[in-house]
């Protein structure tokens, strides 16, 4: 049969308590401290990761804003270039039209001057022929100066009637 000795049980309880106290002091406290340190380290790492994630998100947003702004500026530059090119094209066309109109006007003026010169030359030749014909018909040479004035007056009167 099993015998229980009182002092043996007390001694065993005291030994278990001493062992528990020693284990608690030398084993559980360091393990709990290590566990707390590890928990703190993990939490710090999680906090750092969360902070880094937030910073990365902020940087990503800044980069997206920068890219969006750059695209907008590029579009504005392109639009301005198109507007400048259009205004330059319009200016060149207007200048070309003005130059063409000036050339046409100069050509018209030159043609008119040439027409008048040819007309005067023709009138002069007609006057000379008329004087020569009149001289031959009359049989004598009348004063050239007087004849010339008469023919010029006649041609002027005819031109005025037109």
Q: What report would you give on this structure?
A:
It is a single-pass membrane protein. Component of the F(0) channel, it forms part of the peripheral stalk, linking F(1) to F(0). Keywords: ATP synthesis, Cell membrane, CF(0), Coiled coil, Hydrogen ion transport, Ion transport, Membrane, Transmembrane, Transmembrane helix, Transport. Belongs to the ATPase B chain family. One of its GO terms (cellular component) is endomembrane system. With about 160 residues, this protein is mostly helical. It has one domain. Helices cover about 95% and strands about 0% of the residues. It has two helices and no strands. It has helices at about 5-140, 145-160. The protein is rod-shaped, with a radius of gyration of 61 Å. The N and C termini lie far apart (about 165 Å). The model has no long low-confidence stretch (mean pLDDT about 90).
